[in-house]
Structures are given as C-alpha cells and as structure tokens.
Specification:
Length: about 240
C-alpha cells in the first residue's frame, strides 16, 4: 500500500498517508523507505543514503522533517532504532506505550532507572528549549557513555522524550564547530500538553489494537512477533 519513493516530497506524502514508519528497512514491519544504507532498492529510484542531498538522501530527511514541519515526530521509536510517527497516530502510540502514566508514575513503580530519571529531569528542566545531546551529557555528568546512550534510547522508545531538531556546538568565541548535535525535548514540550489529552482518549489495549490493524493494512505479511515489538505496548 506504500508507493515508490523518489524524493523528499514523496516521502512526506507516503508517511502522512501511512501514519508511521521505521527509519529504514530495519525489521520490515512498516517502512516508507524499504531499504537502508548499503541495501539495494526494490525499485528504480534516485533515493540514495548518505549523499548529503536534501531531496534524495533519507538521512537528511530526519532533521529536515523536524525543521520544516510540526506534524511529524522523529526519534528512536522502533526496535531502539529510528522512526517517524505523525501527529494523527502519535496519541495512539503514546497511549499504548505509556498507558496514561507519567514518568514519575513509572519511576515510582520501579520500571525506569535512576539514570533515566536524571536524564529525563535534565531534558525537562532545560530552559533553552531543546537540549543538545552534548549539553545533556555534560549536565548528567561523568559516567558510562554506553549507559547514557541506553537511557536516552529507552526514554525515546517509551515516549517520554523525543528528538526536537539539531544544534551546533559553539566554542567560547561564539563560533560554531563540529558536527550537528541532536537536541531533545520532552514529548509534551515538543507537541504541547494536548498530546497527552488526546492519548487519554484511548486505553492501552484499544490503542495497540488500532495500531496493529493499521500495520496489517499497510503490510499484511508483517511478522506477528515483530509487530508486537513494533507496537511495544506497556506492561500493566
């Protein structure tokens, strides 16, 4: 049901129609761009990964979407890897994965670590908008980079924080340098508090069932086990 992608415009059209997508081929559950870097395309296309072309490079689209639109979220959403969810479908995923609970609720239940709490609080309390990843790392303090990265990934997958764009490093002279750094915000800051109100209209089971139906419309051959992990419904 997803048409062939030739450029960024096609990608946006198909993503909005589908409602959500993995960032590349990944598991193959739902992928608007059904091939990743180094993989052959299943159809003739000008799309190529990591060329730097804003119109035909899917790697460029992730931050372009965040810079140009307000109806699509991008983060590590599926299988600890990248993905997109539109505003229309985001409340269903939020309901399925959070079940109406706040971060504080989950911390009190013991389902998230103290490091996740430290990272989440740093993102939430940052007063400059979205916090760049390098600033977040400095704020959290010394420790294992792998543990820090895992906490940031977990918070994205559980939909407490999301990528809000990119930020350039700046030296003491005010000059930009180095690679663009990912910037994070809480889901509520990114979308506005109305996103949780919209999610509250669903219970977790209802939301998960709607997502499953939509996936099977898009990909009737989706692997059931991978589909369950794709939805990633919260534990009761």
């Amino acid at each position: 049901m997803i048409n062939e992608i030739q450029n960024y415009g096609d990608f946006i059209t198909e993503l909005l129609a589908a409602g959500f997508s993995e960032g590349g081929s990944a598991s193959g559950v739902v992928s608007v761009v059904p091939f990743g870097w180094g993989e052959p395309s299943p159809y003739p296309t000008r799309v190529r990964w990591h060329t730097g072309d804003a119109d035909t490079d899917p790697w460029e689209w992730r931050l372009r979407v965040l810079a140009e639109r307000d109806d699509i979220a991008y983060a590590k959403l599926f299988f600890k890897r990248s993905g997109f969810i539109t505003r229309e479908w985001y409340p269903r995923f939020l309901a399925a994965r959070r079940g109406g609970r706040t971060f504080e609720d989950e911390y009190a239940r013991g389902t998230v670590s103290h490091l996740c709490k430290t990272v989440y609080n740093a993102v939430r309390e940052y007063d400059g908008g979205a916090i760049p990843a390098h600033t977040l790392r400095q704020t959290v303090g010394a420790g294992s980079k792998s543990a820090f990265d895992a906490a940031v990934t977990e918070l994205q997958g559980r939909m407490f924080i999301t990528i809000a764009g990119g930020a350039q490093r700046v030296n003491r002279a005010g000059e930009q340098y180095g690679w663009t750094s990912t910037a994070f915000a809480t889901v509520e800051r990114f979308w506005g508090d109305e996103i949780t109100s919209a999610a509250d209209e669903y219970d977790a089971d209802e939301a998960a069932a709607e997502i499953e139906r939509r996936v099977l419309e898009l990909n009737p051959d989706a692997n059931p086990k991978l589909l369950a992990k794709f939805i990633n419904k919260c534990a009761r």
